[in-house]
Amino acid sequence: MLGGVVFGCGGFRVLGEDLCGVIVRTLGGRVDRMTVLGESEGLCNVVCEGFDGVFLVGKGVVFEEGLLDALSSSEGDVLAAVDGSVDAGSLPRVGGDGLVFVGVMYVGGEALEWLCRHCRDFGDVDSVLEALSGVFRVRLVGVEGFAWWRVRDERGALAASWRLKLARERERLRDKRVFLFDLDGTLVLGRKPIGGAGEFLDFLKRSELKPVVVTNNSSLTRDDVLVRIRDTLGVMLEEDEVYSSVEFFASRFGSSGKFYYLLPRRVVEYYGLEHCWDDPEECDGVAVGFDRELTYGRLADASLLLQRGKRFLLIHPDLRYPSEEGFLPDAGSIARLLEAVTGRSPEWVGGKPSGEFIGHYLSSRGYSESESVYFGDRLYTDVKMGLESGIDVVLVLTGETGISDIDEGFLLKDHVFVARDLVEYALLVYGVRLGRVDYRGLGL
User: Fold this and answer.
1) Do 154 and 269 share a domain, yes or no?
2) pTM for this one?
3) Is 165's pLDDT higher than 80?
4) 88, 206, 340, 406: most buried by Cβ count inside 10 Å?
């Protein structure tokens, strides 16, 4: 995506890096028409439904779709030079003076024929602008109030695509009333806050919306999570605003016998679970979670019990725990070790990505999937749960998943969004600047 511009026009598509980037208007979910002029020379055009003309764009800038609609209302042959600043009330200013200049031409009729004959005579958009300005009418088009991003490479093009999708769906997302958050990698890293997380939770509370921490972390009790949110993010949540994989497990198996838990003792006792650590022969099964107190003796006992045919339950499938120092083995990794030793796989897997897990919480509190949105950092738990349950899910790139793990096809999935972090989501969906956060990394 070199020297190209991406426009949002009702749908989105990004061409390869050897061509300019174009987003064209779609008709019934189908790309109506797309043409590339100049190819690697840095020129491209978009022919959109509803009028007969061409937008020729350059400078590696991405605009949201409203600007294109404004330009398409032009009458006659117009050469438009877009020159303006981002609205300081809704978006950060960019550059030393906050100004952006990008050549955008809407050309129709005889001018279009002339352009098609001569476009390859020019090496870049600036040359075309200069050549045409003496022939056709020129007007300035302001960009105030429109979101825009610079596109320097394929990563930038991908980021532009997910931002355009958020901008396009912002009205529907603003109707959400219940905000479900993964904990580790989304709100915090261990005991360190992720930038903007506390401010976003506070914004939701002040807006009388419902934030809920939904975590697979089975090493913590509900009280532990409440304290961590308070101490790390400075936000006070209510007891019913925390829901964990252990709580879901207890609702399913708490009265189903004694289990040999690979969990911290205080977690087992907090949720009133009946264990058989002192007498493994009385165990009905093995329940695997995230146990930072795990010893070789516990692993050995669990392995022998499974080899004797006892039940094998996995409280949640997370493979890696994102700490401030790096990734640590999580419940899924411990379960895989037991699988390798015993040749058995878990008969039941709880927590995320189980649609039953999140469905149990919502139904027990009287909430619906349609009024909820979920934020998480993992593809194989958070995003998968959203896809299975039909809940809109926002993948944030602050934990396990990075930009190299996703592609444009991923952004085409229904109910799936991407945001660099909660700062970006708040900015694009609500137009809210979260305090004490460096916005330069947003690329806005």
Assistant:
1) no
2) 0.71
3) yes
4) 406
